[in-house]
Give the backbone structure.
Amino acid sequence: MGDVSFQLNEDQLALQKWIHDFCENVIRPAAGEWDEREEFPWPIVEEAAKIGLYGMDFMAQIMMGDETGLTMPVATEELFWGDAGIGLAIMGSGLAAAGILGNGTPEQVMEWVPQCYGTPDKVQLGAFCVSEPDAGSDVSSLRTKAVYDEAKDEWVLNGTKAWITNGGIADIHVVVATVDPELRGRGQASFVVPPNTPGLSMGQKYSKLGIRASHTSEVVLDDVRVPGSCLLGGKDKLDEKLARAREALANPGKVRSGKQPAMATFEATRPAVGAQAIGIARAAYEYALQYATERVAFGKPIVMHQGIGFMLADMATEIDAARLLVWRAAWLSRNGTYKNAEGSMSKLKAGRTAVWVTERAIQILGGYGYVKEYPVERWHRDAKIYDIFEGTEQIQQLVIARAISGMRVE
C-alpha cells in the first residue's frame, strides 16, 4: 500500500488542463442548446472521440496504472465542470465497461469492452441495465429473468429495465438478471447483449429535470437470446456462486455467498459519481463568485456584504470537504479496501453538496439565477440526480450505517 498524497503529478495536471480546455471551448458553448433539445449530443461525443477523450484508451488511462487512484476523479470533475448532461453522454458507456470489467473473464473483457466505445470513425455506446420499474434501490427484487437453454447453450432474457443511460441506443447492453429467484440478490448474473440482438428494444424515453443531454430510457427484453459465452464470468463460476448462495441460505451467518453483480459495479464507480457532482458544484460556485465580485449593490460588490461572502465561504468549504472524501475513497479503492463504506460516504456528501451549492448560487444571483439566460438554474437541475441515481441518499446512509455498526440496519 502506497503513502497517501493528494498532490497531483505532472501527468494528472496536464490531463486536467486538456479536459478543461475542451470543456471551455467545445462543451460549455453548446451545453444550453443540448439541454433544450433533450437529445444525445452525437457531434460533441464524436469530437471527443477524435481527440481521444472518448474511448477505451482514455478510460484505461484514467482507471488503470494509477497508484494514487486520483486520475479518474480529477478527470471526471473537470468534464462535469463543463456540463453534466454532455459529460454523462461521454462517460455513460463507462458503467457498462465497469460491469464487464468487474464480472467478466479476461477474454470477455477483451472482446466486449472495446465495443462499448467503438473507434473515432465509428463511435459506439454501452449501457448498464439494472434498475426496473418496480426495483430501483431494492436491487434484490429484480424481475428480469434469465433462463438457460442447455440444448442450444443460450440464455433467454425477459423483462423491462428502467432509467437506463444510453438505453436502447447503445451497441452493447450489459443486463443484470435473476437466474434463481429464491436466492434474490445472490441469484443474479450479468449478461452481455451484443449489437442488433433480436428482442431488445427501447421503451419509454424519459423527459428529465436535468442531465437532459444524456439519453435515459427503458430497455425492453422480449425473449432475447444470447450465447452462453455472453454470461459474464462463465457458467462454471455462476454455478459455484449459486451453490454457495444456497448453502448460505441453509446456514445463515456461516457461509459467505459473494457479492451481487450490480453492487460490485456500483462500489467501483461511486467515487467517480461523487466527482461528477463536485464538478457541477464547482461550476456553480465559480460562477457565483465571479458574479458577486462584479455585481454592485449599496455601493460595493455584493461579495463584500457578509451575507453573500459567508455563503461563498461555506460553498468553497463544502466543495473541498466533498472532494477530499472522494479522493480518499478513490485512493482506498486502489490501495486497499473500504472499511467504513468510504465510497458511499463520498457519494453521499458530494451529492448533497452539489444540490446545496447550486441552490446557493441561484440565491446569490437572485432573479438572474432563476432564468435560463444564466447557467446556474441548469446546474441546479443537473445536481439533483446525484441524490438519486447509483444509490439514493438514503441507500448510501443505509450502507454506511451497516458498515460502521457491523449490524444489518434496516
Q: What stands out?
A: The chain has 13 helices and eleven strands.
